[in-house]
Amino acid sequence: MTGSKSISGRKLPRYSGIKTFFRLPSGDFKDVWDVGIFGIPYDGATSYRPGCRFAPSRIREVSALGRGYSLVRELSWFERLNVVDLGDCQSNPMDQDATYKGIESFWGEILALSRRGIAIGGDHSVTLANLRACKAVLNEPLALIHFDAHVDTYPASWGSEFHHGAFLRHALKEGLVDPDKVVQIGIRGPLNDIADLDIGKNNKFSVYTVADIRRLGLDNFCQRIPDFGQTPTFITFDIDCLDPAYAPGTGTPVPGGLTTFEVLSMLQSLSCPNLIGADLVEISPPYDHADITSLAGVYILSEIINIMAAFSRND
Ligand code: MN
Ligand code: MN
Question: Domain 31-310 adopts which CATH fold?
Answer without folding.
Answer: Arginase; Chain A (3.40.800)
